[in-house]
Design brief:
The chain is of the alpha/beta class and 274 residues long. It is 31% helix and 12% strand. The strands form two sheets. A seven-stranded mixed sheet has the order 3-2-1-6-7-8-9, with helices on both faces. The chain has a three-stranded antiparallel sheet with strand order 5-4-10, with no helix packed on it. Strand 1, helix 1 and strand 2 form a beta-alpha-beta unit. Helix 6 packs across helix 7.
């Protein structure tokens, strides 16, 4: 069986640009685009998904598959996961020395569901054929590229000009692009530019992003505050210090956000914002 090209659609600037470019013939056409909804993406992102699905129908775009079987928002509120098993941590901040918890959410709520769906598309064959999984990372974020963890899966980075297997990185013949160039591409084609995608309660957010949410999407911000309160005491899960979504280690509802702080101060190195 011949392997497919699957786009991991994060609905951010880069992965959505890959969707358009592949659908319009500027890049090879992918077989499917898969969006794994972890349960509470920003309202702006879900609105864009509706726009993109409408664009797909009108422009013969790549088929879009939306996975929504798991709900990280509900699981965090309940301090468990959908199957009642172990607590899955997000990279929230702990008090005292201000550290961060280990990130497990990306793997369990995005990567694993996409891998499972690819297996379903292949109709459950025992040994999957080599598959290119396209990931929207631009040249300015090249340090976010990583080796594949599956023998059948190539992580394919068109904007960086590389694909990786479990051991090596190999150059591919694509036109590499920086994020600014991708933004120019949107403007040139008259397409709306998506916001940076993330769960409303993702700790990898700038003060400016939180403030924008608080002002324009108060329900999203209220839900982020709900998660912030729910995770505060996780002693039953073996975490002794209090946990906070904001790096100030203050309750989110009480934080005085700095509107000028527009960039995240650390590097989000996993494949979450794709």
């Amino acid at each position: 069986m011949e392997g497919m090209n699957i786009l991991s659609l994060g609905l951010g600037v880069q992965s959505t640009a890959l969707y358009y470019m592949s659908s319009m013939g500027e890049l090879p056409r992918c077989d499917y685009a898969i969006f794994a909804d972890p349960g509470h993406e920003k309202t702006e992102t879900m609105n864009y998904l509706r726009y993109l699905k409408d664009w797909q129908k009108k422009n013969n775009g790549i088929p879009i598959i939306v996975l929504n079987g798991k709900n990280l928002y509900e699981d965090l509120l309940n301090q468990t996961n959908s199957t009642g098993q172990r607590f899955v941590s997000i990279p929230a901040f702990t008090g005292g020395s201000i550290g961060m918890l280990r990130r497990q959410c990306t793997t369990e709520y995005k990567i694993n569901p996409i891998n499972k769906e690819i297996r379903r598309i292949y109709n459950g064959v025992g040994r999957l054929p080599k598959t290119n999984v396209w990931i929207g990372i631009s040249l300015d974020e090249h340090d976010r590229m990583h080796l594949s963890k599956k023998a059948w899966r190539f992580n394919y980075y068109p904007f960086c000009g590389y694909k990786t297997d479990r051991k090596n990185a190999e150059k591919i013949n694509t036109e590499t692009m920086y994020r600014t160039e991708i933004m120019e591409w949107y403007n040139k084609h008259g397409l709306p530019i998506p916001v940076k995608s993330s769960c409303v309660f993702c700790p990898y957010q700038s003060d400016n992003a939180y403030l924008r949410m608080k002002r324009s999407y108060p329900e999203d911000f209220a839900d982020a505050c709900n998660v912030d309160e729910a995770i505060r005491d996780s002693s039953k899960k073996g975490i002794k210090q209090q946990i906070f979504l904001h790096r100030s280690c203050k309750p989110l509802k009480n934080v005085q956000f700095d509107e000028l702080q527009t960039e995240w101060m650390d590097n989000c190195t996993d494949g979450c914002h794709i």
